[in-house]
């Protein structure tokens, strides 16, 4: 996506590793007066990077669960929102929306052992989700874009990538992952039934496979 609700960095999957305690380079070097956002057209590179972000978060959650088995049905994904204080309300609302919409995964705030983090700042590319390629990732929330578009929708949309959903800009406003496609007048921040079902499927079936790999890796390292 080029400067819409979900933008992946120009480096694509070859990003420099970023820890949760490091400000993304995009936030540190972004211009203070971004150019107007380009058309929402997406790209195969962005789609691949969104998928990589989901897989990184999935792997992180699976490794923690394999190390500390729990009987809880839902998988807990921990996020660190301490570096995006301006959007504390939107992040909390996005979390509430997703936690009330799906049953196989649950988002939880925390600064210790976070699976991904939120950051804020100015970036001409807008808001985006990204991965460092090493089991970590972050969501960047752009100031200007969040003033143009409904901020809760932006945040919930980006969080949708964490849960495994791709962009679909040609969709209607009722589809959360249509992002900025329907225009600034769209304020819907809720996933539709298809999106909710897809997330539940991913975290039921996809997580089982990731957990199996994590358990095998732990067993191998313990030998």
From TrEMBL:
Residues 1-27 form the signal peptide. Disulfide bonds join 173-186. It catalyses: Hydrolyzes proteins with a preference for Tyr or Phe in the P1' position. Has no action on amino-acid p-nitroanilides. Gene3D superfamilies: Collagenase (Catalytic Domain). Keywords: Calcium, Disulfide bond, Hydrolase, Metal-binding, Metalloprotease, Protease, Secreted, Signal, Zinc. The keyword Disulfide bond applies. GO terms for cellular component: extracellular region. GO terms for molecular function: metalloendopeptidase activity; zinc ion binding. InterPro entries: MetalloPept_cat_dom_sf (IPR024079), Peptidase_M7 (IPR000013). It is found in: Secreted. Its EC number is 3.4.24.77. Binds 1 zinc ion per subunit. Zn(2+) binds at residues 157, 161, 167. GO terms for biological process: proteolysis. Its cofactor is Zn(2+); Ca(2+). The active site is at residue 158. Ca(2+) binds at residue 152. Belongs to the peptidase M7 family. This is Extracellular small neutral protease. It comes from Streptomyces griseoloalbus.
